[in-house]
Amino acid sequence: MGLSFGDGYFGGTLAPSVIYEYNNNIALGIGLNGTINNQKDVYKSTILGGSLIGLFTPINSIQLSTEFEQLKVTRKYESHLNLSNDSYWVPALFFGLGYRNGNVTFGIRYDILYNSNKSIYLDPWTPFVRFYF
Hints:
- The protein has strands at 2-6, 9-14, 17-21, 26-39, 43-59, 62-77, 86-101, 104-111, 125-131.
- By secondary structure, the chain is mainly β.
- It has one domain (2-131): Porin (Beta Barrel), CATH 2.40.160.
- It is elongated.
- The model has no long low-confidence stretch (mean pLDDT 92).
């Protein structure tokens, strides 16, 4: 979940996932992603999609992850900017390494399909935090 705002900008993200632990070492799941960004008099974007998640815990506190994400990006620019509106699909394939302590895992992941022109992320490296209920 994320929320940011300031001086004419609003951004919000909701990205829940459901993960089933098959045993102490293997878990699989699915996730959804919904993001809205709005910069007053500049642009609006909507990002919707989903993901498939695989987690492997070889030892108690180390978690390896893989996640395939497919997102539909729609961007609309204000007409005075002379930028064209666009709508496209963008895939991401993340491989991650995390430290797990109880119901929390934090770590970093890398997108091997990263495309700097289309990705919604600034960099192929992305930190993450997962909370389990």
